[in-house]
Amino acid sequence: MLFLPLYCVVAPAIGFSLEYQGLVSHLWTNGVFYFMLILVPIFCLSRDFVWKYYKRTYAPASYHIAQEIQKYNIPDYRPRQEQFQKAIKKVRAVQRMRRNRGFAFSQTENPARQDQSRLIRAYDTSKSDARPSGY
After folding, report:
1. Which ranges are annotated Basic and acidic residues under compositional bias (predicted)?
2. Is 125 within a domain?
3. What pTM did the predictor assign?
4. How far apart are the first and last CA of the chain?
5. Which residues form the domain of 35?
6. Which residues does 56 contact at the CB level (< 8 Å), separation at least 6?
């Protein structure tokens, strides 16, 4: 919008491009010029707008979805990292408890605990459900 009037005044004045002499007064008084000034860019860009609309609506890429989530501030219902870490700690604590379980009494061979070790050896669950006699 600035180059054309400047060129139409300067070029004929120095004897270069004499065909531009008087063009500005004819161009800016014509309604078709202003109509085309609006219509041509809209027409040229409409193909790009239609293509972008189609791609985002009917075949969105993963980053399109991420952009919409950020734009509309949609909450994310996936588990958060801290909740996940808490669940992992609980599972590991339960696994540690299961691993560290043992007998309620000692299995050492000392004279004070002879009756406990004899009871352990006498009771064999692989043979039958009956308890050993004498106890």
Report:
1. 124-135
2. no
3. 0.41
4. 111
5. 2-99
6. 64
